[in-house]
Design brief:
Layout: H1 9-12, E1 24-32, E2 38-43, E3 47-54, E4 57-61, E5 64-68, E6 72-76, E7 81-86, E8 93-100, H2 108-111, E9 117-120, H3 125-139, H4 142-164, H5 171-190, H6 197-204, H7 208-219, H8 223-241, H9 246-252, H10 258-269, H11 273-278, E10 280-282
Length: 286
């Protein structure tokens, strides 16, 4: 029996009665590949997003070969022939979404300039949106399906914005970017510790409001939102790669109170850490 993600958009619509408008999501899961997994050449009639949660792969799309690493997002457009190969010794976990716009002629390929490897996203809000979608789709309620569609629309909007960014910043923007990168580096190194706004002001040389505004402009999040995103990313990594308990994970990422950690994780991702783990699909290539 054919599955929804392998159908033509119009063909799948009668089976998507719980979805009332595009984008229509036909597949959403977190896929944990086993050692040596490969995806043989195939062609979808729908769009696919594949986001690398961890590990590396080699993609081949329409004769073009490129590698991906943690944080990379790949878009495969309808009718594009593609294959995927994992790297030995580098466990691969990805979020895979397949969707279409029904009978609406939405020019996503043109808006993303036909790019397949659209960018690397590690701590931006787009990662949290992508993470929530599989868990929401699994819930099957009308409200969860609508929220999943809304999050996918946000992801698409953020990718279009990313594609539209100017490539050559002005000297003033370049100086501000350098200062913000200094702050970002400090946060990357110390996110599990207590960080004060005063310390970040000292590092950047900017006032509080200017610091927050410039940081948000460059990274799409405030400094403290970034800290929470880094803590969530580390927590996901530990949940995937270790047998640590939730309280142990909470302590590693800077929380002595497991309830405060759980509240933060759900606020950032929309799901609990246990729900994130239950969204994993083991060695089921789609």
């Amino acid at each position: 029996m054919r599955t929804l993600e392998t159908m033509a958009p119009k063909e799948s619509l009668p089976y998507l009665k719980h979805l009332f408008y595009p984008p229509y999501i036909t597949l959403a899961h977190i896929f944990h590949a086993k050692e040596g997994w490969e995806l043989p050449r195939r062609q979808f009639l729908q769009y696919q997003f594949q986001y690398a949660v961890q590990g590396s792969t080699v993609f081949e799309i329409e004769g073009r070969t490129f590698s991906t690493k943690k944080g990379d997002l790949v878009v495969v457009y309808p009718y594009q022939s593609h294959s995927v190969t994992t790297i030995p010794g580098d466990p691969y976990v990805c979020i895979s979404l397949v969707f279409h716009f029904g009978e609406t002629d939405f020019p996503l390929k043109e808006l993303l300039k036909g790019t397949n490897d659209v960018g690397t996203f590690l701590d931006e809000p787009i990662v949290q949106h992508l993470t929530q979608i599989p868990a929401l789709i699994r819930q099957s309620s009308h409200s969860s399906q609508l929220k999943a569609q809304g999050l996918l629309s946000l992801v698409i909007a953020q990718l279009i914005r990313h594609a539209e960014k100017p490539k050559s910043p002005s000297p003033k923007k370049l100086k501000s970017k350098t200062n913000m990168q200094r702050v970002e580096h400090f946060i990357q190194q110390h996110y599990a510790e207590e960080i004060t706004l005063e310390k970040l002001e000292q590092i950047s040389g900017f006032s509080r409001n200017h610091l927050i505004n410039q940081y948000r402009e460059l990274f799409q999040v405030t400094p403290f939102e970034h800290i929470r995103l880094l803590r969530v990313r580390k927590a996901k990594q530990l949940a995937l790669e270790s047998k640590m308990s939730i309280s142990e994970i909470a302590e590693v990422v800077g929380y002595q109170d497991v309830h405060a950690f759980s509240k933060m994780f759900k606020k950032v991702t929309g799901i609990s850490l246990s729900q994130f783990c239950s969204s994993l699909v083991i060695n089921k290539p789609k």
